[in-house]
Every structure is written in structure tokens, then in C-alpha cells.
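Chain A, query sequence.
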Amino acid sequence: MRASIAGYHEHFVRRASRTFEVHQRRHLSDDALLVHIKAIHAQTRGGYGWPRTWKELLARGIRVGKERVRKLMQLHGIRAK
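Chain A, predicted structure.
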């Protein structure tokens, strides 16, 4: 009986630590996201506004909301030509 309780507890400990790791990897800080946005802006020579920049971030595997991209670009004065 003792082994099943320990296994049950270990299951939840493993699950919680795995969830924490995924949570850490998935969320990008605003500063890190801004680096990616500025890189895209530089590569496209200022040709992309927030919709294309957002789509490019998704294509590069960076999951982020379009409103967050729009607000960050607006806040930092990053605009399309």
C-alpha cells in the first residue's frame, strides 16, 4: 500500500515540474520579444507593420498574440515605411 501512495505523489511532483518547464519556455518577456520584432523590422528594412511582423513571428515559431505585437511596436515607435 505504501508504494502506491509514493507513486501517486511522485506522479504529481513530476507533472508539476514538467508543467513549470513548459510554462517557462512558452512565455517570452517583452524585452525578448522586442529583440525579435526589431530583428524582423531590420531584415525587412522597415517594410512590415504589425500584422506582417506578427505573422513572421508565428512562422518563426514564436507564439504571441497580435495585440501584444501591435502594442509593443506602437510603444517603441516601430512603424512600417
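The chain has one domain: 2-75. The radius of gyration is 20 Å.
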